[in-house]
Amino acid sequence: MLGSQPVSLSKENISLLIKEPYLVSWKADGTRFMLLIQRESAYLTDRDFRIFHIPHLHFPRKGLHDLHSDTLIDGELVIDRVDEKTVKPRFLMYDLVTLNGVAMPADYAKRLEILREEVFIPREMAKTQKKFDFSKEPFGIRCKDFYPLAKIQEVFQLLPKLPHENDGLILAPNHQAYLPGRDNKLLKWKPPHLNTVDFRLDVEKVQKEHSPTEVVYRLLLAQGGDKVFGQLSFDTLNKEEVKKFRCSFACLLFFINLVCIEHCSSLHFSSQGLEWQDHRVSV
Whole-angstrom Cα distance, residue 195 to residue 96? Predict the structure, then answer.
């Protein structure tokens, strides 16, 4: 993913919140995309670097006499529930990387302001003046709101009122340029029951003398290099590929119990792997 990637809030990095100004927002449970605007054309790029051409999107500049180009926006596609029977997809914009080929400042609040003033508001004005046919757009466009960290309690109260699914908070440092890839200052927090862990599943066939071929599944922490978190051995699954997947602690334990019961396999976790969970922070 070209976009900035947050890290989990932990005991090791929570002190960042008092060392420099932070903004806070809800963590939308949608699909992450980078949006590239090239005048009449718009493209979405996902985590797997797949590129989708999105027709009928309109991004006029201020004054409505020209269109944006060479503009890159970070955001998330969510499904908003309008009422009990109606849902509407919307793209929540929450950072601006470049605007018409110009890199944005190292100030997050300023980037959000420019995003609203230069991209969102001109779109709304064009709707009012019927400059374009917005009825054909495949999804709506909104700016995601961020608040000073001091208002974190208000953000918590906002979570159950949101029209789309959410799974925690995002805490963004204000005085920092947009950083592609892993950003150790960009923090995410999830309630304990929604915490997830990224794993890589290595699949290997092992041929033992005078024994049937055994399929060995090694579960590795995505951030742990080649350190094996757990290992399963059974021959009922035969996908010979390496996958990266995400599962919650609850789902992982359910999977472990299911495998051990049905296949009488052993599973061993290193103490270091288990300690990784203990470093999470409860708010």
Answer: 28
Question: Which sign, positive or negative, has the C-alpha torsion 16, 22, 27, 32?
Answer: negative
pLDDT in tens, 2-19: 789 999 999 999 999 999
CA distance 122 to 99: 14
Q: Which residues are annotated as catalytic?
A: 27
Strands (DSSP E) found in the chain: 4-8, 22-28, 31-38, 41-45, 51-54, 71-81, 87-99, 102-103, 140-143, 147-148, 166-173, 181-189, 196-206, 214-221, 228-233, 243-248
Output the DSSP codes for 19-31: HS-EEEEEEE-SE
Q: Are 109 and 125 in contact (CB under 8 A)?
A: no
Using alpha carbons, select from 40, 64, 73 the residue that is nearest to residue 123.
64
On whether the CB atoms of residues 229 and 221 are closer than 8 A, the answer is yes
Nearest to 218, CA basis, from 234, 231, 207, 208: 231
Six-digit token string for 194: 């929604």
Q: What is the pLDDT of residues 123-153, one digit of tens each?
A: 999 999 999 999 999 999 999 999 999 999 9
